[in-house]
Amino acid sequence: SGAANESLGGTLGAELRDVHPNLGVLHQGNPLSSGALQAAVRGALDDRARLSQKVPADATRVLALVVDDDAHVRLALSRILSDVGADVITAPSGLHALQKLQTQPVDLVIADQLMPGMEGTRLLETAYKTWPRIVRVVYTGYLSSGLVVDAVNRANVHKVLAKDMSPEWLRQQLSEVIAEIRATRSA
Asked: What pLDDT does residue 141 have?
């Protein structure tokens, strides 16, 4: 029914905004003519343009890229990062992350170590060589001294965080990273 579709669309829009807080969602319950659809999209884009003009791209804006092959981990990290004041984009693999790094002004990359195709330290090493200003963090469930040494030597990582740390501790660590990025910009 129409009411069920409207509810589903509203729920989907809310879930998308949970993952990508800055995402604009245009939800229309009734069929639109081509002209009406174009007008609705143009209005939504104009509204977003006006909002972005009110919020200058200054030292307080931090864009974080979360890279993990587990969608639940990406969602959890995205929520924490959003809570501590970062804008967040995600990628399910190192390859997808490299594509986003080429087109987005990313300030922080948080990468899982064990991912199919490209391990986190390899991704972060590539990011370090290509975009050295980006802060790099490894987030892993398999913490070892060898991993830490490798991450520091190859990728010059800022932090290595364990997946089994408490949510409060993780929130504190990520909050500190975001604050450091902001402080570096304003210096």
From this structure: 79
User: Exposed (0-12), middle (13-18) or buried (19+): which is 181, by Cβ within 10 Å?
Assistant: buried
User: Can you tell me whether residue 106 is helix, strand or coil?
Assistant: coil
Which amino acid, one-letter code, is at 52? S
Within the chain, residue ranges assigned H as helices are 2-19, 34-54, 71-83, 94-103, 120-130, 145-155, 167-186
CA geometry: angle at 94 spanning 93 and 100, to 5°?
95
C-alpha to C-alpha distance for 121 and 6, rounded to whole angstroms: 44
* 55 pLDDT tier (thresholds 50, 70, 90): very low
User: What would the mean pLDDT of 133-152 be, rounded to a whole number?
Assistant: 80
Which amino acid would we find at residue 115? M
> Higher pLDDT residue, 65 or 9?
65
Is the pLDDT at 95 greater than 80? The verdict is: yes
How crowded is the C-beta side of 162, counted as CA atoms within 13 Å? 9
- Rounded to 5°, the CA angle 79-52-34 comes to 95
Please determine, for residue 30, whether its predicted confidence score (pLDDT) is greater than 70: no
